[in-house]
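hey m, so remember when u said the tokens were messed up on ur end? i reran from scratch. heres the input so u can diff it against urs
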Amino acid sequence: MATIRILLADDHAVLRAGLRALIHSQPGMEVVAEAADGAEAVRKAGETAPDLALMDVTMPGMSGIAAIEQLRQASPRTRVLVLTVHGDADARAALEAGASGYVTKDMEGPEILNAIRAVSRGRTFVAHLPRVGRSQSAGAGDAAAKRLSERERQVLELVARGHTNREVAERLALSVKTVETYRARLSDKLGLRSRAELVRFAAETGLLVLPRTPPPQPGS
């Protein structure tokens, strides 16, 4: 199994040390770089091309939220897992900026490790989903989902999992312009404008199964 190469970005050295020790205790994971602020995280990502960046959102200078888009440009294959103490507000902003999920600083070590594994495999991980946009009953959501074409469902799922328009286009053998058109159709049909809203809709209607925290596996 390939080793998950991780960038740690947090301005608290003690927290980074704890996370580093936790990650290095696991086979198949290693910390390849560390950063104390957003700008350094972007630079280190460009230098090391990690599989995953575990990034705090409240750092001096460039914040974690502001750094996400720049980091993804510097290292397009790096997926971002946000680390926060603030919950919903930060989760919403992180998803909009291109993060693949978030964990809170009060989560147990095994939960954080499971989130790292899930995101590194291309999944979306959120501790819980913020209520964003319009309120929608499960029945109404199911009805709206049934109006989607198979291709629209595929685009929705990939977008909800954190893929960019270009990545969706590559996976589905479409042009970027065609993916943009599908996303516009999804917004029109569902009345959902942001990625955070699309993630919630996909989860509520079963198009996206969000990982729960399973018991630690032997040897993991």
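this time it looks ok to me. The two ends are 12 Å apart (CA to CA). if urs says something different then somethings off w ur setup not the seq
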